[in-house]
Amino acid sequence: MALQATALVPATFSVTKEGKSSASFKDSDLFGISLSGHVKANFSSSALRCKREFNQRTGAVRAQTTATATPAIDRPAMDGKKTLRKGSVIITGASSGLGLATAKALAETGKWHVIMACRDFLKAERAAKSAGMSKENYTIMHLDLASLDSVRQFVDSYKRSGRPLDVLVCNAAVYQPTAKEPSFTAEGFELSVGINHLGHFLLSRLLLDDLKQSDYPSKRLIIVGSITGNTNTLAGNVPPKANLGDLRGLTGGLNGLNSSTMIDGGEFDGAKAYKDSKVCNMLTMQEFHRRFHEETGITFASLYPGCIATTGLFREHIPLFRLLFPPFQKYITKGFVSEEEAGKRLAQVVSDPSLMKSGVYWSWNKDSASFENQLSAEASDQEKARKIWELSEKLVGLA
Ligand code: LMG
Ligand code: NDP
Ligand code: PMR
């Protein structure tokens, strides 16, 4: 409970003033805590603060509109000029790696308030501090994607906070390449698909309406994908390969009791479960696009940010792998990107006006220029996307 209450308090409360690679391998082809002191604040003050923050920022932000192409909200100001408000972006798993680097990149612009949706509050707070993020630019909220109750609580808290929602980034993930046995979420789903896909599926479904209601000029839902889920690439052909099969395991609930823990019904394999989960992420983005883009104007997108070989994603891999993987990616595949560079890429998908197209899986070439990439046959299979949507709805209690 204490954590929940604390989690609702924006870090800003402590501020007194309320204030492609074209070399040998191509991505696109086969080679391709100062917490407790501020807990007094409650929901309504949070909403109030939001408004005040908006009012105070108007002047500063107005000055920036002339210099950049960041979407602006046309609101009549006192002097009759157009103004914009800060965008609000939720990033799941912003306590490390890509999520943290993206939070930092967005916070630094001064145009975004980042809601860091994390399972470990203290880790997130330390991470934000050591990244040098200033308190008025972020809020940490508790979210454990391995529990659908936690997802629902997070959504309730967010709605009560009174903040608008302009962009949602589904970034968090786990990867269990060395696990011999499966582990499970609170509801009994195999952990990687449970967190990476099902938790995010419920989260984004429950927050879709908030995105829809946003008056921000460009509202977006971004689900992080990966090259390793795409079997039209070399990286996607390193065994074990992603393959969702006929979805019999997902149909059975991935619980290892009356069904397999793997989507395709096979034997548990942590590396494959991760890659399968990424295929679900990329299919879900496209299904959202087909169902809701026209009606809501929301941009749905996915991306492969590059191989960020130094992140916590590989924490469960053997030490030798963690030692050799970065130089392998840097010097042999040349697919390596730093966390900082990858953060800038995802930040572009969040806010760059040139990346507004919906239904796209973005990648970057060796000059770090973005391009619309091709997904594998399975990761663009419309019929599978529809089935996964419907099965996932049942599993998370939406149908
Ligand atoms: C599975 O293995 C694991 O079983 C599973 O747990 C999970 O981790 C999963 O996808 C993740 O991978 C699959 C993989 C194991 O199997 C294969 O890829 C089959 C082919 C492997 C044959 C290796 C030759 C590859 C030839 C391709 C040419 C490219 C050059 C590659 C150079 C590296 C060769 C070792 O694959 C492996 O175990 C490969 C080893 C892990 C790769 C990452 C680290 C390699 C680093 C090597 C060079 C680093 C640079 C410094 C130079 C050091 C010199 C010693
Ligand atoms: P990290 O491990 O550094 O980051 C993953 C984040 O997810 C962490 O903040 C972690 O929290 C969080 N997380 C894990 N489980 C949960 C949970 N149950 N509830 C809430 N948050 C959770 O890895 P990356 O930054 O590399 O990964 C980020 C995204 O990028 C993933 O979607 C991954 O698939 C994708 N990606 C990564 C690539 C790479 O090369 N690294 C390449 C392509 C895509 P905590 O800090 O508490 O552990
Ligand atoms: Mg892979 C262009 C070549 C390329 C790229 C971009 C990646 C990205 N990898 C490439 C090639 C190879 N990898 C080759 C030739 C091999 C065999 C030696 C290889 C192996 C390998 C392993 C064992 N690669 C891996 C692993 C992992 O455990 C990582 C993984 O699959 O996690 C699911 C991984 C990755 N390679 C990548 C990327 C981005 C990953 C991290 C996976 C992800 O985040 O989706």
TrEMBL record:
Question: May I have one GO cellular component term?
Answer: chloroplast
Identify the main location: plastid
Q: Name one GO biological process term.
A: chlorophyll biosynthetic process
Q: What EC identifiers does the entry list? A: 1.3.1.33
**What are this entry's molecular-function GO terms?**
protochlorophyllide reductase activity
Name where it's found. Answer: Plastid, Chloroplast
Q: Which reaction does it catalyse?
A: chlorophyllide a + NADP(+) = protochlorophyllide a + NADPH + H(+)
Coiled-coil ranges (or none): none
**Keywords noted in UniProt:** Chlorophyll biosynthesis, Chloroplast, NADP, Oxidoreductase, Photosynthesis, Plastid, Transit peptide
User: What general EC class does the enzyme of this chain belong to?
Assistant: oxidoreductase
Q: Pathway, per Swiss-Prot/TrEMBL?
A: Porphyrin-containing compound metabolism; chlorophyll biosynthesis
Write out the function statement from the record: Phototransformation of protochlorophyllide (Pchlide) to chlorophyllide (Chlide).
Q: According to its UniProt record, which protein family does this protein belong to?
A: Belongs to the short-chain dehydrogenases/reductases (SDR) family. POR subfamily.
Q: Which NCBIfam families match?
A: LPOR (TIGR01289)
Spell out the protein name for this chain.
NADPH-protochlorophyllide oxidoreductase
- Lineage per the UniProt record: Eukaryota, Viridiplantae, Streptophyta, Embryophyta, Tracheophyta
